[in-house]
Write a structure and sequence with these properties.
The chain has helices at 9-12, 14-20, 40-69, and strands at residues 2-5, 21-25, 31-35. It has 71 residues and is α+β, with helices and mostly antiparallel strands. The two termini are 24 Å apart.
């Protein structure tokens, strides 16, 4: 399991982000997300980033693990 800080916490403040904004990625098809951002713009952008950044990242990591097993 990997924890990645919300990329948008600068909007609400990095200190608040460290305390409350995380994205938890788990192996397999299940992706758990959690964001308790103060501002609505930050929360909206966070959800957009999950689609635009984190899902492709998870796919890439899975492909790398699969390739490593096949060596």
């Amino acid at each position: 399991m990997t924890k990645i800080a919300c990329a948008n916490c600068d909007m609400c403040g990095a200190e608040m982000g460290e305390l409350s904004c995380t994205l938890i990625l788990e192996e397999g098809d299940k992706i758990d997300k959690a964001c308790w951002c103060i501002c609505k713009d930050c929360a909206k952008k966070f959800k957009e980033d999950i689609v635009n950044f984190y899902k492709p990242l998870v796919k890439e990591v899975k492909e790398q693990k699969k390739a490593a097993k096949n060596k």
